[in-house]
């Protein structure tokens, strides 16, 4: 269920993820569009899927729009990682979680000749799905796939502005995953969509493979306060566990 922060009047959408909502001081502001950025293996897609799963547990409908992987593989990877989520198939059957998508790598020549038109078709499909299923939570995975369609940087920026505006108009709280060139916090580089979206959560990885430390940080959350601490996290069979100082004191 969404909550309302009495101090600010901002309606919040809890992610339902242990520790993350404490860092967000309750959740993501309703109708905000948030980037989850990180390097390969950080768990961006899994975190985004859990956002939909927790919404389904609260009676909300969510859509996962996959642009890079087969929707069936998205679901299977989530079930493999979150072994305790034994009701995923039930939520999918009931239409609480819809996993859809398109492979943007198909017919790349056709896309390059009409990138704006192709992007418009993709946004149209997302809008139709949101309207049809009356979804309130949306995940788009990922921005790098959109860049395959739109190679011109100025056009890409305009298209991302249009995407955010359309999602906001539809009244959804959404997450867009974004690939980082590095998982090293010291070498973080911002991309156009990072400035355009309302919020940004970055997932870092440091150390060697066998002793890798994973952590996340909320870079911004437009219109609302949030923690500035970088907190370690773990991916468990029961979902993400974010070990933020805020969660230790609640």
Task: Describe the protein in words.
- With 250 residues, this protein is an alpha/beta fold.
- It contains ten helices and twelve strands.
- It has one domain: Rossmann fold (3-Layer(aba) Sandwich).
- The chain has a nine-stranded mixed sheet, sandwiched between helices. A three-stranded antiparallel sheet has the order 1-2-3, with no helix packed on it.
- Strand 1 and strand 2 form a beta hairpin.
- The longest helix is centred in the middle third of the chain and has 19 residues.
- It is globular.
The CATH topology name reads Rossmann fold
Q: What fraction strand?
A: 15-25%
CATH class: Alpha Beta
Number of helices: 10
* Number of extended strands: 12
**Mean pLDDT across residues:** 88
Shape summary: globular
Q: Quickly give the CATH architecture.
A: 3-Layer(aba) Sandwich
Low-confidence stretches: none
How far apart, in Å, are the first and last alpha carbons? 19 Å
What is the percent of helical residues?
Answer: 25-40%
State the major sheet.
9 strands, mixed
Task: Provide tags for this entry.
single chain, 250 residues, alpha/beta, Rossmann fold, nine-stranded mixed sheet, three-stranded antiparallel sheet, 25% strand
Topology:
Blueprint: E1 3-4, E2 11-13, H1 20-23, E3 28-29, E4 33-38, H2 44-57, E5 62-66, H3 71-81, H4 88-93, E6 97-101, H5 108-113, H6 115-133, E7 137-141, H7 143-149, H8 153-169, E8 173-179, H9 192-196, E9 199-206, E10 213-221, E11 231-236, E12 239-242, H10 245-248
Parallel strand pairs: 4-8, 4-9, 5-6, 5-7, 7-8
Antiparallel strand pairs: 1-2, 2-3, 9-10, 10-11, 11-12
Helix pairs in contact: 2-3, 6-8
């Amino acid at each position: 269920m969404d909550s309302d922060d009495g101090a600010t009047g901002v309606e919040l959408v809890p992610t339902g993820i242990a520790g993350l909502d404490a860092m967000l001081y309750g959740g993501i502001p309703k109708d905000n569009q948030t980037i989850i950025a990180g390097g390969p293996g950080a768990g961006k897609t899994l975190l985004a899927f859990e956002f939909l799963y927790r919404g389904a547990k609260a009676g909300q409908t969510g859509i996962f729009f996959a642009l890079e992987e087969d929707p069936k593989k998205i679901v299977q990877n989530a079930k493999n990682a979150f072994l305790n989520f034994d009701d995923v198939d039930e939520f999918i059957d009931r239409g609480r979680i819809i996993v859809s998508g398109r492979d943007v790598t198909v017919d790349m020549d056709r896309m390059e000749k009409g990138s704006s038109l192709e992007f418009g078709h993709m946004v149209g499909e997302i809008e139709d799905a949101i309207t049809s299923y009356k979804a309130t939570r949306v995940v788009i995975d990922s921005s790098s796939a959109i860049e395959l369609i739109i190679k011109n940087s100025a056009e890409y920026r305009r298209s991302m502005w249009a995407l955010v505006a359309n999602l906001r108009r539809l009244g959804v709280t959404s997450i867009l995953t974004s690939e980082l060139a590095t998982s090293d916090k010291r070498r973080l580089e911002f991309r156009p969509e990072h400035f355009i979206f309302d919020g940004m959560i970055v997932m870092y990885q440091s150390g060697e493979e066998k002793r890798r430390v994973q952590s996340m940080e909320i870079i911004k959350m437009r219109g609302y306060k949030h923690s500035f601490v970088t907190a370690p996290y773990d991916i468990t069979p029961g979902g993400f566990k974010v070990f933020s100082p805020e969660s230790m004191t609640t």
